[in-house]
Amino acid sequence: MAGGGGRPKIVLLGMMTPMPVAGVVWQNLHYLLGFERLGFEAYYVETHARTPSMLMSNQEDDSSALAAEFIASVMRRFGLADRWAFRALHDDRRCYGMSELQLERLYGEAELLINLHGGTQPLPELAATGRLVYLETDPVQMQLEVSHGLRETIEFLEPHVAFFTFAENWGNPDCRLPVSERFEFHPTRQPVVLDLWPDRSAQPAGHYTTIGNWRQDRREVSFEGERYTWSKHHEFAKYLDLPEQTGLGFELALSSATAEDREMLAQRGWGVRDGLEVSTSIDRYRDYVGGSRGEFTVAKDQNVRLRTGWFSDRGVTYLASGRPVVNQDTGFGAALPTGEGLFAFDSLDAAAGALAEIEGDYSRHAAAARRVARDHFGHEVVLGAMLEHLGIDVRTGSRQPRTATVFPAEMDLEPASRRPLELPRGTVEAARAMSVSIHEDAPALGPESASIVVLTHDGLAFTRLCLESVLANTAEHDFELIVVDNASRDGTRAYLAQLAEADARVRVLFNARNMGFAAACNQGLGLALGEHMVLLNNDTMVPPGWLAPLLEHLRDPAVGLVGPVTNRIGNEAEIETAYRTWGELLAFARRQRQNHAGEWLAMRTPAMFCLAMRRQTFQHLGPLDERYEIGLLEDDDYAERAREAGYELRCVEDSFVHHFGEASFGNLVAGGEYQRILRANQQRFAEKWGRQWEPYERRANPRYEREAEQLREAVEAAVPAGAEVLVITRGDDALLELNGHRAKHFPQGEDGGWAGHHPAHSQEAIDHLEELRERGARYLVVPQTYRWWLDHYGGLREHLESRYRPLVEDERAGAIYELEAAAE
After folding, report:
1. Euclidean distance between CA atoms 6 and 4, whole angstroms
2. Which distant-in-sequence residues (6+ apart) come within 8 Å of 731 by Cβ?
3. Which of helix, strand or coil describes residue 424?
4. What is the signed CA dihedral for 586, 592, 594, 600, rounded to 10 degrees?
5. Nearest-CA neighbor of 550 among 527, 528, 566?
6. Which of 252, 279, 410, 453 is most buried, judged by most C-beta within 10 A?
């Protein structure tokens, strides 16, 4: 810290008294109390020249004393009674709260002085600290003035050392807000201290509401020949038919609305009440938000058409209260997850559709709203990222150089669930808490260099684990890390932008839409400058020493494609593993390198979860085939091309990469999209190569063999010889070797072999089971490897348990159901 012992200090320069309404007060409190919770001493200072007219009843009132008492009452309530100051620059320049001497000392000691809203002039005593930070909550005007070269604006910004903005889409291709080379704005958002907002998700309420101003005929701007308005009534006018179209109740708590405005809204089915009535008390405001069914609101035209990515601090409090939010689209989906608890709309039909989605399962969306607030707006997340960017260690409060990530040894790598793939909460929190890698020198890409290409589409926690492991554990090589983002909407883009700024080895390409796996990989490979190219999934983690063995094999010109061994992939590269935590993984990978040094296995298809090749090989084979939609079977296709070109394909035994597996495609299983894509791509593969796609082979796996043997023993003991048995498989014929029983794959294709895909949903599985039962199947066997079916296809499990007798339920052997014993 700059000034002695005790906790490090942060000063928030705010403006509560010019607009002393609850929403503004809460916004300041979340910063102050958020920093307090992170271990800092937070101070609030107003030092501006704006008259607090809303606190005055007449011209004779002592405006300075009223402002000071207002601030004091807020600070007293939250235990900050001695940590505020008000300088009456609008009047006699008196200093209230702390003395001028105390204030001067505070400025010298503070780690940061945050100019919230940019509402405080960077006075000499503030600028002289070298720690003044600009934090903008309403974007557009400042960026346009900088773009137009307005001297006053540039002189205002220059004393600040860092710049943050609520324009979270700033710098992305679809955002029209001009980018400044002189002042680099970093995306941020409103923090929330969650425990200040009771979770009301289990208490449904009546009306969708919002709070705000109706007319504000000022601050209009012009840009590239177009006029952009500030007042929200222009946008609300597009959605006046919503009550009639949905049949739902809506109420607007409005200020700055005329009697004619209120009458018009009432005639169109909107409830209207006085906005100040709910905003003069922070408790009344909180109760109003929590007592709503959710928030429906519009945004300013400036944010909507310029696609700034702005999101309301008021909306955050609805989410924190467990109330779903339906907000006009400003592009905030580039940084925040939408579709569950939080919705963006751009038309009347889209707004009505979002509300219908919420009403269809209100409790789910209410709970999701609270999760969005916790995971994306929690003070630890928002303020932690800000401090990290500024180089301040949250644990010590001091400025320290950022270093490559060291993961906690106890970090759990076992997924909490699959399809969709979810990590344990502690692992997600560990990923979120990681410091961003810093490396200021541009990479030297010599003859042994590598370009590592990673594709991202959401999955922020997975991406952080992957990229930080690469940056930490590939230091012995000259490499660059190229990340191609396929229109992520969960905060991934903001993280990638921050990472690219901090680490010169990282380059990022943002796509405005999901280009699909092959096309995005081709983009990354096209940017690659290294002599070797590595495709790496974002749901992987790499230990030290992972890359060298791959590159060693590529010294042989006969070798075209190589990949490592892994814990999960479904082909010959999958080996038996015995680790659960990151520390155990490191030890396992080290033993694998030592015990299998120089060993390799010829394989048919090195999968693209991690695939390495020489630049020359890529130039020979060409880019990935983009006909395979958003993904699946590109690696099979590329392996065919490599074999036809005469290359060897190898699995390298002394390189290990952890693979969570199906982080993206697992989300598509429940709705049937995964199966549709797989079937379509199998057909494309067959048309291109003149033969059917074949399931992957597996290497001998002692654990798998033990499970298969236990399964055979269970079937032999429970099922009569000669009976027709269905076995849930993924094309593994070894599971059908059941000592003379007539075993068949489930699900199966028309030829009786494995169908090549899993059912899209429970009903498809049930219908297929009953069809095969009508054709003579008498038993269904669920091997231990596929016990996840009974969790994923809950309807199938219910069907089996209600209609058929379970013969075996064993943790080692799996489950067996007798289909003849139907309770019909």
Report:
1. 7
2. 695, 696, 745, 753, 754, 756
3. coil
4. -140
5. 566
6. 453
pLDDT at 145 over 70: yes
**How many whole angstroms separate alpha carbon 647 and alpha carbon 134?**
56
The strand ranges marked E within 527-567 are 532-537, 540-541, 559-566
Cβ–Cβ < 8 Å for 345, 331: no
Compute CA distances 78 → 36, 115, 296, 782, 800, whole Å. 11, 21, 30, 58, 57
Q: Which of 414, 391, 413, 415 is nearest to 402 (CA)?
A: 391
Q: What is the 3-state secondary structure (H, E, C) of 378-410?
A: EHHHHHHHHHHHCCECCCCCCECCCCCCCCCCC
Residues 797 and 792: their CA atoms lie apart, in Å, by: 9
pLDDT over 70 at 701, yes or no: no
DSSP conformational letter for 486:
E
- Label the pairing between strands 532-537 and 610-614: antiparallel
The token pair at 785 is: 């490897």
State whether residue 743 is helix, strand or coil. Answer: strand
Helix axes 460-473, 425-433, angle to 10 degrees: 60
Residue type, 67: A
**CA distance to 452, 463, 601, 606, 660, per residue, from 545 (Å):** 15, 20, 19, 19, 19
Helix (H, G, I), strand (E, B) or coil at 321: coil
Give the Cα-Cα-Cα angle 492, 28, 221 (nearest 5 degrees): 70
Q: Which of 69-73, 397-401, 628-632 has the highest mean pLDDT?
A: 69-73
Say which residues have a Cβ less than 8 Å from residue 95's Cβ, sequence separation at least 6.
Answer: 85, 86, 87, 88, 103
The tokens of 281 are what? 């008390």
Listing DSSP states for 533-588 in one string gives EEEEETTEE--TTSHHHHHHHTTSTTEEEEEEEESS-SSTTB------BHHHHHHH
Beta strands 610-614 and 342-345, pairing class: unpaired
d(Cα 657, Cα 820) in Å, to the nearest integer?
A: 46
**What is the C-alpha separation between 458 and 422, in angstroms, rounded?**
13
Q: What amino acid is encoded at 346 in this protein?
A: D
Say whether pLDDT at 405 is over 60: no
| Peptide bond between residue 695 and the one before it cis (omega within 30 degrees of 0) | no
Q: State the pairing for strand pair 162-165/185-187.
A: parallel
Distance CA 696, CA 608 (A): 14
Cα-to-chain-centroid distance, residue 133 = 26
Cα 640 from Cα 544, distance rounded (Å): 31
Q: What is the mean pLDDT of the chain?
A: 88
d(CA 4, CA 326): 47
Distance between CA atoms of 627 and 667, rounded to whole angstroms?
Answer: 21
Instruction: Report the alpha-carbon distance of residue 359 to residue 194 in Å, rounded.
Output: 25
Q: Which of 411, 508, 419 is nearest to 469 (CA)?
A: 411
Report the chain's terminal Cα–Cα distance, integer Å.
Answer: 76
pLDDT of amino acid 130: 85
